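*Target chain*
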Amino acid sequence: MIVAVITPLRTTLGLALVGALLCANAAHATAGPLSSAPPTVSGTLQQGKKLTALTGTWVGSGTITYAFQWYRCDANAAHCSSIHGSTKSTYTEVAKDVGQTIGLTVRATDSTGTGEAYAPVAGLVAAAAGSLVASAQPPLGGDPIVGTPLAVQAATWSTTPTGTAYAWLRCNANGRLCTPIPSETTASYEPTSADAGHVLVAEVIGTSGTIQQTVLSIGVAIRG
């Protein structure tokens, strides 16, 4: 009789414990604000100029506060390293940034915890004395879905280029570690199944005399 009483009790306690752990894990997985529109970077891509972090759109509980971390990456948005002390909403580009791209992570905190999101990399950063400088990243037009063409809009330059060329990059889901898409050299591109779950970025390469400068578009995540 004692065994018959104790066994159900242990079973009940065990199930209760499992249920509590599952609830705790679910709460932990969903803690913190969620990003519904990614952060972006605004400003002129040139040594000595200031970039500003735009937080994007977040869904959270109550008041949301933000923290920032800026990164220096290579021309293909790879090998990113945090820029020491660059944790404000603005960042002034330095000589080490020339020819590189700039990354940004935004961390949002509310009463439930902290979430983070990545801005599309910005760049390439022009030299201080360059005569061809992009004042903003061009956006991509079109629905970011497989089979629907995307087109990069005209870049805004300090001087009108005498020539313009294009290339397309396929990046990971965070808009990093980008690789060229072979033979895509026009202002438009139709995403394929290989692009689903990735971020696509267009390179706009402007030429003015002997100076050549590349600016990356704002990346978009492709849906299948």
Notes: The domain at 34-221 is CATH 2.60.40.2700 (Immunoglobulin-like). The chain has one domain: 34-221. The longest strand covers residues 113-123.
